[in-house]
Design a protein that fits this description.
mainly alpha; 71% helix; 149 residues; elongated
């Protein structure tokens, strides 16, 4: 599978394929990240970044964050951010402006994606606002789901 992925000539497809292999072959993370860097369309770069981000070591997270922040399309940036928040080494708790950027961007996602991301944001929500904040968010989500099923 690795050789097939490496042989793909279209850059974003090769980046997607290599990124998809990283959970099973962590030794190819540097190669997959390099190929993702080479994707010239920054919006298309969101897909391999989202797949790679949950598996990256802590030292590579700042670079991937910068690459994600450079994506102009909020939809695609949200996709990349979604991968970052799934990495246990990534934290939004110490940077309020970054937290605000993530919330604003992730709010551009569809409801299903946002709710899936909300699970990964829960530790930060509790840290910044306490369990009461998380309870209020759950109540708001339930209200919105009743009003607009």
């Amino acid at each position: 599978a690795l050789e097939v992925a490496r042989a793909i000539t279209h850059e974003s497809n090769r980046a997607d394929a290599l990124s998809g292999l990283t959970p099973h072959l962590p030794q190819i993370i540097p190669e997959a990240l390099e190929v993702a860097r080479e994707v010239t369309d920054k919006s298309m770069r969101a897909y391999p970044l989202s797949t790679l981000a949950p598996h990256l070591p802590e030292n590579l997270l700042p670079e991937v964050l910068q690459m994600a922040q450079a994506i102009q399309s909020e939809y695609h940036r949200a996709y990349a951010f979604s991968g970052l928040i799934k990495n246990s080494n990534f934290s939004l708790q110490d940077d309020v402006s970054l937290w605000q950027e993530f919330l604003h961007t992730l709010a551009c996602s569809d409801r299903q994606s946002f709710l899936r991301d909300l699970v990964h944001l829960s530790p930060t929500i509790i840290c910044l606002g306490g369990k009461e904040a998380l309870a209020a968010i759950v109540e708001a989500v339930q209200d919105v789901s009743r009003w607009w099923p």
